[in-house]
Amino acid sequence: MKTLLSDAASPTGEHEIAATEATGEILSIRGGRPLRGRVDVKGAKNLATKAMVAALLGESASILRDVPDISDVKVVRSLLEAHGVRVDDGDEPGTLHLDPRDAVSAHMEEIDAHAGASRIPILFCGPLLHLLGQAFIPDLGGCRIGDRPINFHLDALRNFGAVVEKLPSGIRLSAPDGLHGANIELPYPSVGATEQVLLTAVRARGVTELRNAAIEPEIMDLIAVLQKMGAIISYEPNRVILIEGVPSLSGYDHRCIFDRNEAASWACAALATDGDIFVSGARQQEMLTFLNVFRKAGGSFDIGEDGIRFRRGDALRPVMVETDVHPGFMTDWQQPLIVALTQAQGRSVVHETVYENRLGFTAALNKMGADIQVHAQGLDMPGRRVPRRALEQAAVINGPTPLHGADVVVPDLRGGYSYVIAALAAEGESTVRNVGIIRRGYEKFFAKLDAVGADFRVVG
Ligand code: EPU
């Protein structure tokens, strides 16, 4: 098969653009052959977008490097521009210059245009309150993987002294007397709520103590960004972060941490298709937990200076995994792993404890021949740590099951990636629809599929 439409930013520029009507939403995939090759993984989606928001806090321009070319970045860029931030592409590919010196309140219509497109707008609250004394945040989007409430965010903002008003179209916030430091304990180490507190506390009057904080590597990288800007942030054992507010911050120059979720996705693609993929830019340190599971499942890896090579060892083996906050096994890793586990000899169990509805994607894998049962209430099993959340679900994967082609519709970012990998592992032809969602988080996706020898074409 031949690729008909390129990623706009194909590194080789070799793809033929033949189907002018194709939007990149539907892929026809012929599977059954190993993926082999090299992919470059750049900056993390889950850091780049937050660092872009942090630029609003500076009194001078910032430079962000290795920014991935994904639609979430485009949404945040448009929102920053709607607020008067000048955003320019730098000479080095993937570099953004962000100048907030003319930042202003955006018009409601401009903000509204982005409603539902991403979850990042909620993180504009603190910076906008510092800058303008008010903020309006549209209804949030992001993947439909559970309720995804924002109560932790709003409670934290109230603690800083913000007045929060909920409107049908979004949330209006104001801080007539400015924001002050706060003592906050999160009910759960939420990534977004921790970022909310960091982005708000750095310029609040006085000290903020955040307990039960998330400590993901992307959060540590955001702390590094803020420290470059002049913030004073320290962290203690047991998920405590202390932030001493400062009256002003400057711009930063920062290279984003690599995207470990994307690296893990390609690693699982190699495992599922019995392939061999070198993920340039992947680092061991941030992936320790993933690498342990990968090895236990029968994967083999070589860690190099500039990346990690992933392939199968001997036969694939079943594993039991529980998703968790860092340093646990990330919820964003389970979907591509589950595809590989359909090929393991025996019964695997994956407990999802971060989101209440992140195993729905497995129904389509069953349509492709997998044998996966989802238990809505989780499973009480020996050898498990005590579950910490009521919202867990468990997937029981019986393998090995040969996969065959099917017509499937992408439900969300990580689930969608796993469908593409399943289609590439399956015998025969598959149609994968709604592929645009995958570009929210995987840059140059088609070009990378090409680079590892995937047999696909864009048909719509
Ligand atoms: N939660 C609440 N109330 C809140 C905030 C969160 O109940 O106010 C709950 C959520 O419903 C969820 C849990 O806490 O059950 C964890 O949510 P968290 O806030 O940690 O997630 P997030 O910040 O919304 C980020 C990533 C996700 C990733 C999670 C967990 C971004 C933009 N998103 O989401 O990434 O899965 O952390 O690591 O950083 C993805 O990349 O595909 C993705 C969904």
From TrEMBL:
Domain of life, source organism: Bacteria
Modification 2-(S-cysteinyl)pyruvic acid O-phosphothioketal occurs at: 143
Pathway where it operates: Cell wall biogenesis; peptidoglycan biosynthesis
Protein name per the record: UDP-N-acetylglucosamine 1-carboxyvinyltransferase
All copies of domain Enolpyruvate transferase, residue ranges: 30-449
EC numbers on record: 2.5.1.7
Localization per record: Cytoplasm
Predominant place of localization: cytoplasm
Gene name of this polypeptide: murA
Role played: Cell wall formation. Adds enolpyruvyl to UDP-N-acetylglucosamine.
Keyword Methyltransferase: no
